[in-house]
Amino acid sequence: MxxxxxxxxxxxxxxxxxxxxxxxxxxxxxxxxxxxxxxSLKNIPxxxxxxxxxxxxxxxxxxxxxxxxxxxxxxxxxxxDLDKQEIIHIDTAKKQYSIDTFDDMRKMMAQMPxxxxxxxxxxxxxxxxxxxxxxxxxxFSFSVSVNDTGVQQVVNxxxxxxxxxxxxxxxxxxxxxxxSATYTVTTEIWTTPDEPxxxxxxxxxxxxxxxxxxxxxDMSAYANMLGSASSAGMAQAQMFxxxxxxxxxxxxxxxxxxxxxxxxxxxxxxxGGSGTGHAAPQGSGAANSQPASQGSGNPxxxxxxxxxGALVSSIFGKKKSQPAAxxxxxxxxxxxxPGETTLLETTTQKSNFSQNPIPAxxxxxxxxxxxxPSALAQALAKQQ
Length: 384
Description:
By secondary structure, the protein is an alpha+beta fold.
C-alpha cells in the first residue's frame, strides 16, 4: 500500500462508525385527554393541582447523533454513549447525575441468571402451597377485532391511514340472570406506510447499543434463562386459558393484530363499558329494584370479587363525560358503541421529526450538576 494513503485509511476507519448516520430527532407525547374518571377526579377540590399534572402532556424527545443517543423528558435525561461505553442518568429536577459503565452492567447481567433461578424457585414453592380459591359466579367472554376504515389523511406531516382496534370483555353473573357488563378498549390507530427515517435511526442505534453491551457476555446462561422464561410464559397462558373462551381469544388476537400495517404515529385509546340488568346502589352489592335497560351505561351488580364491583357501579352510574378536546392532529372520532360510557381516554403521538444538526450540549452533563453513585454502582459495592 502507498505510504501516503495510510493516514487517509486510518482516518476512514476511525470515522466508519459515523458514516451513514445523520442527526435525527423526534418526539413522543402521551396525554390523558378525557373520560368520566378524569372528570370525576377534577370535581374533587383537593385534586386540582394533581389533576393538572396528571392530565398535562408527557413528552419524550429522542435524539441520535452518531454513537450517541439522548432521551429527554421534563425531569430527566438519559445519554447513551457507545464510544465511552457508558450511560449517564441526569436528574434535571435535583441537578444530579450518575454514570453506569458497560462493564458494571455486564457484571450485573452475569448475576441475573442465578437471581432469576432463585426467584423462580421461590415462586414454585409458593405455588406448591395448597390454596382454595373462592367460588365465582362470573363468566367471561372475549373478542378482538381490527378494522381498516379506509380513511386516509395527513397526520403530523405524514400520510397515514386509520385502523380501529377493539378489545371486548363481557362479564356475566350467573347468579343474576340477565345481568352482564361489557368492558371495551377501543384504539384508533393512524399508521404511516413508510417508517420515518428518524425512528429507523433510533432503532439502529438501539441495535448497536445491544451488540456493544453484550460483547463478551456468556450467552449460554441467558439461553437457558430464556428457555425457563418461555416455560413460565406457557404456564401463565395455560392459567389464563382456564377461563372459557380465553384460549380462542388469544389466537384471534394474534390474527387480528397482524392486520395492523405500517408504523403507528397517532393512537387514541378509549376505555369504558356498558351494562344490562340490575344496577347496584353505590357502595352496595345488592341489586337495585329498578331495572336498567340494555346499553343504559349502568353496569350490573357484580359480586365484590368480580371486576368492576361497587367502584365501577359508582363511576358508570354517572352521566357521560363531555368529548375531550381533539389532539393536535385532528382525526375523526373513535367509533363508540351506543350507550357506552367512556371511563378514560388517552392520546399518544409521534411528531416533530427532524434531521437538523443536534447541538453537542444535548449529550453533555450540565454545568454545576453534582455526581452521585448510581443504583447499580451501589448494588455492586454491597457485594464486595
